[in-house]
Amino acid sequence: xxxxxxxxxxxxxxxxxxxxxxxxxxxxxxAIAPIAVGALLMNGLxxxxxQTVLARFGPAAVSAEGLAFAAVVVARLALITGAVVLVxxxxxxxxxxxxxxxxxxxxxxxxxxxxxxxxxxxxxRRASDIADAQRARGLSLRRGGLPNPEAxxxxxxxxxxxxxxxxxxxxxxxxxxxxxxxxxxxxxxVLEDGPGQRAGRWLIVxxxxxxxxAARWPR
Amino acid sequence: xxxxxxxxxxxxxxxxxxxxxxxxGYAPGQTxxxxxxxxxxxxxxxxxxxxxxxxxxxxxxxxxxxPRLTGGWRRGRVALVRREGHALEQAATxxxxxxxxxxxxxxxxxAGLTWxxxxxxxxxxxxxxxxxxxxxxxxxxxxxxxxxxxxxxxADRDPSTLSDGETARLALGSILVLEPEALVVDDPxxxxxxxxxxxxxxxxxxxxxxxAVVLLTSRPAALADALPxxxxxxxxxxxxxxxxxxxxxxxxLLAAPDVACYGILPALPASAPASASSRLGGETEACAAMRxxxxxxxxxxxxxxxxxxxxxxSEDVWAALAPEQSTCLLSATGIAVAFGGRPALRGLSxxxxxxxxxxxxxxxxxxxxTLLRAFAGLVVPSEGRVRVGNADPAxxxxxxxxxxxxxxxxxxxxxxxxxxxxxDVAVGLHWVGVPRRAHAPLVAAALSASGxxxxxxxxxxDLPASGRRWHAIAAALVLRTPVVLLDEPTVxxxxxxxxxxxxxxxxxxxxxxxxxxxSHDLDFVAEVADRVVVLSGGLVRADGPAGDVLxxxxxxxxxxxxxxxxxxxxxxxxxxxxxxxxxxxxxxALGAGPAEEPSPGPRYNSLRPRRSERGNARxxxx
Lengths: 219, 622
Hints:
Number of strands of chain B: 19
Structural class of chain A: mainly alpha
Helix content of chain B: 25-40%
Low-confidence stretches of chain A: none
Structural class of chain B: alpha/beta
Number of domains of chain A: 2
Number of strands of chain A: 4
Low-confidence stretches of chain B: 1-12, 270-310, 593-622
CATH class of the largest domain in chain B: Alpha Beta
Radius of gyration of chain A: 24 Å
Number of domains of chain B: 2
Strand order of the largest sheet of chain B: 6-7-8-3-9-10
Distance between the termini of chain B: 17 Å
Distance between the termini of chain A: 17 Å
Helix content of chain A: over 70%
Number of helices of chain A: 7
CATH architecture of the largest domain in chain B: 3-Layer(aba) Sandwich
Largest sheet of chain A: 2 strands, antiparallel
Shape of chain B: globular
Largest interface: A-B, 52 and 70 residues
CATH superfamily of the largest domain in chain B: P-loop containing nucleotide triphosphate hydrolases
Mean pLDDT of chain A: 85
Largest sheet of chain B: 6 strands, mixed
Strand order of the largest sheet of chain A: 1-2
Oligomer: heterodimer
Radius of gyration of chain B: 24 Å
Strand content of chain A: 5-15%
């Protein structure tokens, strides 16, 4: 079941074009690979109810049941990760905000969605600027090929101050633009939500319910 | 200043913004600003004040952010008086409704954006969306505003990829497009090149007849250069230690040389020298009004630079900070740099003269900052090569590069890691491997050279803007490098800080340091640079002696720069356009400057009464 759903997600990613496809595959792989390796090692070697032993390494034994369980866990995690990464890669923060507003989320909460979404890239940019400022004063970010522990403090302290300043500055900027105004709002963001997409969403809801019922159905 | 009558209708425009008995501060019992003001007579209300004068606090109070978001306390009345006599009281109005009527823009450019849209056009239209403007009209108004602020080619760009100057245009344009009834703009000149400032002020001027406009500035000369006629017609107030010390027509008040006693460089008139001379000479009454009065206090200003004993450090201090290495050659040959596929430098070559001062000038996004970062080894060119001495600064060991090249970036707060000014200055010494026992004398000398000795134990974030800038310069000076790179060093500096920096740069030149200064402030560049390189679109458009390059008005205009009024005056009077003391020479020729040629560094002490003299003047009732 998880593999089938993952296949659906993969096909959806495939249809989004080369850039999205590559980003989806790379990011999903980076996110899932360490978990997958961990799950395979733990469950493959130390699965408690393993009857069919394939190989033995001292106290550890590779069992067919353990590998099967690990495969299911990895497939489920891959499905969740792949779906989240696909949504993130194809849904603009502005569209998300507009969708949340249309869904009835009270103002100004939807307006904060793109701001929250942009926070990470902004932090990354500021961290890069701060690192440059400190490197210009002689700070080495790596020492002997390893991260320099001293660099962490030199980067984190100004970054924290920048975040606090940033919060106040954004509040002022948002208020100056009228985010607190009462009344009707408009939007330049156009949501592409045709009959096909609406039908697709209901189909996913229906399929999920059917899967739940099938899983719980007495055999 | 006489109290205002809020019932009085706007005299020349549609709306007046008035502040009556406005007093506010951050700590209990400590007054940061006290002012009675009125804006809205069809021209701008220009409020000039040095760093720490309370200028930004006043702007925040007028916008209603103070003390709601900043903390602190306030008393008094702020109101918007409309033509029909109806007054919108700030105290009785919801913050959102007040800000819908009173547009505010201030702070650093990036702090002025909401970052709620991923395109420049989207950011510009965000405020209109909040007002419920129809999408078709939003598209029209944002397109018109994009063209007006010179960003029409960048409508679909991600705002995070804009230069600081472009971001400043977008931030102010995002407020202008909302067409507020009153406009409060703090430090519009800080990050904008001459053309950008001129374009935005023209936009403001075009609607000033129907709108109250308050421009708060530490550099009225930049406003005067950008839009001389409008500036001259405006009314001005000078802030000193949180109070309005003098008021009058901008043309006389802010062009009077004695304005320097409040830490502001006077705006020179752009008219013919003869008339300029007579105008300045005839302003004795205005100059008298500028003398410190009872509003100044014996405690001095909040600005550490102004509290320092002198305008520039002694030769002993500079000797203690002399570079460890001899003169160092610096070169960039055919370098190309791109960010995200967008070229920032396109194969340019610049060879700053060793032991001299090179000015990098150009419009916003011209490539000045990127070139400085390449010299500091912080970006690796995709083509060409950069050399500091015989080494590639990007590939050399970091501490070795930092001992050759010091870079003062445009954002001093990025480097603060310690809780005290002295501690933070010492951090760089530790990183480059200077033994701890040698730190104290070097830090003391750097703080002395920067006028921060009395603030060694203060937290760097508690310094006013000018002090923060000097803190960053101290952190660079302490490394005693033969090469010093300064990126927009005058941003945040008031006149006193600028004069101190000019004196410092002259001292560095005497020590044989190679100095490269990237700035859109041509008045500053004219004073310090031996040679000027004009950058535009990542290419070198001109490279030559400062006097020759800065005299070429067509060339500067082509690079989105506006020639300062002082250059035209100096040319007309046959005075040197550039070089150490060129500004003082012009003031002297106009009969308004210091009595003698500043030597070895500018000596402007005569323009600013010392604290003891100010105390005497107050006791004498002057």
